[in-house]
Amino acid sequence: MTLIPDFVPNRIGGIEPPRGGLAAIDVVNPHDARVLAAIPRSGTAEIDAAVAAARAAQPGWAATPAVQRGEVLHRIANLIEARKDDLARIVALEAGKRLPDALGEAGAAIQCARFFAGEGQRLFGRTTTSGMALRWAMTVRRPCGVAGLIIAANTPAPNFAWKVFPALICGNGVVLKTAEDTPVSSWFLARLCEEAGLPAGVLNVVHGLGAEAGQALVEHPGVDVLSFTGSTRVGRMIAEVAGRQLKKVSLELGGKNPLVVCDDADLDNAVRWALLAAFSNAGQRCAAASRIIVFDSVFEAFAAKLVAAARGLKLGVAPDCDLGPVINARQLANMLAAIDRARAEGAEILCGGARATAPGLADGFYLQPTVISGLAPEAEMSCTELFGPITCLYRAAGFEAAVELANNTPYGLTAAIHTRDIDRALAFASRVRSGVAVINGGTHGSEPHMPFGGVKASGNGTREPGTEALDVYSDLQDVYLNAQMPR
Ligand code: NAD
């Protein structure tokens, strides 16, 4: 069988329904704009069926002891490991990535599965004291019921893993609405989960557009907990619905992440990390360094090195390339328009700023790595997340000004500082308002056992993955056990 069939179906209750009368959405390789496959443009009926399947399968899964659920997750991890080359090929094609990067993402999904498999042996509650004699007081984690999961397209395999595995280990049924640009890897992973022994119906995958299938899932009364990774704009709408329905919700949203370069930084190291943080994955990371704040005294030197390095980056999906295309034509057009507006506001485009049209790239959605300076902190581009290979440079007179600029954003996802001064580094970590603070590294990078998430407009305070993700996907129940004096 070919790796990617022409039609990639939903997976509902272990069945892959034929397209029937549903309209189709093309899945396009962003590297060359070729159509890879079609997915169904699902709507309310498909979401209803998926939620019903999850509701039917969930009690049996919840009744399976958590340690045994963990064993299923271990088998899933092993099967993904065995099929990681296929998974990586799918990711590379549908997301327009280098194969080594796609393999790295498959590895991240495997690590995440293994971590949550182990959580099946923990799932700790608390045993505590009681105000009454001979009474035992404890908390126990219970599944929420059905989890409705919605993910972004940027790193498809980890995005799947970060939500699906914690939801499963807690004993929930799952309905995943895939990202319309990268739906194939989610379908492939869901198949592997069932092949590894996950009972049919526990995990259901529905393709479709956000405003249709996504909205139907968010509003569905049969969904007990929602977890969403995507833009702040959509996150706010989901929070409104969840608020009305008093539904539990976890929101992992956008970022406008600052990377501060101090006068005592190792400039070459700072350039190396800034380059990776701004341009790896073509800047399509919620944690991308899109605001680089540099002390005045080293601004020119840093800017010259960064621009030279950015000009040297190789575009494409071959193993020796540095960055690939952005996810679709609409995103490319958005970014080109934003660059035009910044230019009209007086910004200086230090490098890039245009579509890449070299042979082999012209058909794809490639934007040259772009470094911009001279923008006011209040300018549109300084405040708006672009989600592409564009970064802006800002000058700061010193540490205080740099911290102020770093915090001058509606977002608060990640932040980094480059300095050799430990006092500065620690002061930055305590004063920057972000969910992640990095010293002498990039703004990106997260580990499956660590809680990731943001403050302000970057989220609603929840953290996934890590042990903290269990708080999203389980409800605490207090259990009191009353004893009597033995006769
Ligand atoms: P998006 O919000 O447009 O779409 C994300 C997902 O939401 C897609 O699956 C989409 O179909 C769905 N969706 C869209 N409208 C919906 C609606 N009305 N109801 C329900 N679902 C809907 O975001 P995008 O442009 O695809 O992704 C990029 C965004 O994701 C950026 O803002 C980025 O920072 C964010 N992101 C955040 C994290 C994080 O962990 N904080 C990680 C990756 C991406």
From TrEMBL:
Keyword annotations of the record: Oxidoreductase
Is Oxidoreductase one of the keywords? yes
Mitochondrion listed as a keyword: no
Superkingdom of the source species: Bacteria
Q: Name one GO molecular function term.
A: oxidoreductase activity, acting on the aldehyde or oxo group of donors, NAD or NADP as acceptor
Q: Which Pfam families match?
A: Aldedh
Q: Which residues form the Aldehyde dehydrogenase domain?
A: 24-478
The catalytic site is made up of E252
Identify the SUPFAM superfamilies for this entry: ALDH-like
PROSITE patterns, per this entry? ALDEHYDE_DEHYDR_CYS, ALDEHYDE_DEHYDR_GLU
Entry-linked PANTHER family: ALDEHYDE DEHYDROGENASE-RELATED (PTHR11699)
Recorded family membership: Belongs to the aldehyde dehydrogenase family.
Output this protein's name: Aldehyde dehydrogenase
Name the species this protein comes from: Blastochloris tepida
